[in-house]
Design a protein that fits this description.
- By secondary structure, the protein is an alpha+beta fold.
- The chain folds into 3 domains: 2-49; 57-218, no CATH class; 223-311, Beta Barrel (OB fold (Dihydrolipoamide Acetyltransferase, E2P)).
- The protein is built from 8 helices and 12 strands.
- Strands 4-5-1-6-7 form a 5-stranded antiparallel β-sheet. Strands 8-9-10-12-11 form a 5-stranded mixed barrel.
- Strand 6 and strand 7 form a beta hairpin.
- The protein starts with a helix and ends with a strand.
């Protein structure tokens, strides 16, 4: 893995520099040897820094009760913690490719998402997980993007501030929340900490961060429902930013939210028709309503406008 390989090379370089500083002028052969070694390391570091990895890979490095010294780790813990991490990646890819996942049943798959253990990490107890790809990719694969998204989600869940996680929950698939809960429970139940290293992010979660994340995720519940009986006046719709505003009939409540991609695309075509007026009209609309319930806080609802069915 590029980031860890760079860390190892840089550590070797610093060790060689230290040795060079200790060699006296009375040892020209030793100085020449270490100078050559330093030049070789500098060249390797430069070449590796210029490499762009497009396939997905990630390192999970563990510490705590399941780890014994620097050579072994509980097999039971490994099986318990790796499965929910794999599930997070699989569900993230499926959500991107198929949209919102069903509340139960098999996860649909178009892009193979299985990660394989490529190697053990030198100097630590952990694994490098990598997608299987026989071809040289020219752009980032869906697995690579999903790994980055999952790493960010885990870091947000464990952050000291609630703000980032609250924002991420607004768009998080409910089935991903289940796997995220299982991941942190596995770590916390085994008194383990973890460092997660991928191409662009490096997140270290100590015991306190793991416990904080577990409590936060356990206290969060997300439920999505859809209704095609929402009636109200469409006050505004911005297709580029995919935002809408509607005043509900009866209650007069003004709701705001995002616009589904199909409707945003269709809206752009409709506004080119001079006789088509959508804003300022009362509509029966299809809406996805997400209710987020967090312990010790009132529930909050988020709205996604999926379709404008008929004028009223």
């Amino acid at each position: 893995m590029k980031r860890l390989d760079l860390e190892a090379l840089i550590a070797d370089r610093e060790a060689v520099r230290t040795m060079l500083a200790r060699i006296s002028d009375e040892d020209p052969i030793g100085r020449l040897s270490f100078s050559a070694r330093l030049a070789s390391l500098e060249e390797k570091i430069q070449k590796l820094a210029d490499v762009r990895e497009h396939t997905g890979s990630i390192a999970l490095l563990f510490a705590g009760a399941p780890v014994h010294g620097s050579r072994s780790i509980s097999a039971d813990f490994v099986m318990t913690v790796l499965k929910p991490f794999q599930d997070l990646v699989t569900k993230r890819i499926a959500g991107e490719e198929f949209g919102r996942l069903g509340s139960r049943g098999r996860i649909p798959e178009r892009t193979p998402s299985a990660l394989a253990i490529r190697e053990l990490v030198r100097g630590s107890v952990g694994f490098v997980l990598e997608e299987s790809s026989v071809n040289a990719e020219l752009t980032d694969t869906p697995v690579k993007k999903a790994i980055g998204d999952v790493t960010l989600l885990i870091r947000q869940a464990a952050a000291e501030s609630d703000v980032d996680f609250e924002v991420s929950v607004e768009t998080l698939d409910p089935r991903m929340l289940i796997s995220l809960r299982d991941f942190f429970r596995a770590l916390d139940d085994h008194d383990a900490s973890v460092r997660i290293v991928e191409d662009e992010r490096d997140a270290s979660l100590d015991g306190n961060a793991v416990r904080r994340a577990r409590l936060r995720v356990d206290a969060t519940d997300v439920e999505d429902t859809e209704s095609d009986e929402i009636v109200g006046e469409l006050l505004g719709l911005l297709p580029d930013s995919r935002k809408f505003e509607m005043q509900l009939a009866g209650t007069g409540e003004i709701i705001r939210g995002s616009v589904g991609a199909p409707l945003a695309t269709r809206w752009l075509a409709l506004i080119e028709q001079t006789d088509e007026r959508l804003v300022g009209q009362v509509w029966r609309a299809k809406m996805r309503i997400r209710e987020i319930r967090e312990r010790s806080r009132p529930p909050r609802s988020l709205y996604t406008l999926l379709d404008l069915i008929e004028r009223r």
